[in-house]
């Protein structure tokens, strides 16, 4: 499944690229614009480097200087984006906003930004040719949980960028290697809580022993697909995979990442059967004559209950034998006659 080169816009018209302080998704966004098979409308509000993307099929709207209170010719970004979407040609298009958080800051209201994005995704869905809305978001963001709800869009492709140092940290501190070196359930049970604590990833990158900056050449991509996973079959479940991304190879399996090769080169030693008779101060082994003598010893109750073999001591019928004590009263009189009632 590739959400960059072969997206199924009819089933997946909504894509979220999530960045963090520790790892940016800007490289993936650039590759999406350069390798997309369709035209793209880019609304650039944050990263000026996207304006220099070498792609002839990208129409860029420079909104970097369109800041309320700082630009005398400020134009409401919602009106500009809606106008561009409504007047776009009737063909397959990608509508890219970088970034949603900057858009919300310009609008000045999270509820108004959410209402605008709801209107925008409805326009994208209603286009005659399948199109896609691509939103770049920076976590933590108050808009992220709203955009991931099924109320906003039943189908969703959500990518989260992580630094490769996170997997090396899990292998060192939690002794958990990525699949297939570890079971899927065990890995995700540890990876998800640690990755959601973003301060831990930031410490791995910017801490006293950190790398000092996120890796722009390689990164981990957590891909969450809700709805159609690309095979044409609609699902009610959520597929979650972990892939590697590099500047030269694009998306690929984790073992192909240069920074993770030491993890996948580890061989898991097969457990050997431990011999309990080793490293003891006395001999626990039997000689051949001792084993023969041991085999000739008749075991008690060995043939008991086997109808095909005669029993040496047949079991008699059950009976209770009682020897009365001297203080026992065994007469047939009333046992309560001694009571003064």
From TrEMBL:
Q: Which GO terms describe its cellular component?
A: cytosol; elongator holoenzyme complex; nucleus
Q: Where is the composition biased (Acidic residues)?
A: 325-341
Classification via Pfam families: Elong_Iki1 (PF10483)
Q: Which UniProt keywords apply?
A: Cytoplasm, Nucleus, tRNA processing
Has UniProt tagged this entry with the keyword Oxidoreductase?
A: no
A single GO molecular-function term is:
tRNA binding
Provide the family line.
Belongs to the ELP5 family.
* Protein's recorded name: Elongator complex protein 5
Q: Give the taxonomic lineage as stored in the record.
A: Eukaryota, Fungi, Dikarya, Basidiomycota, Agaricomycotina
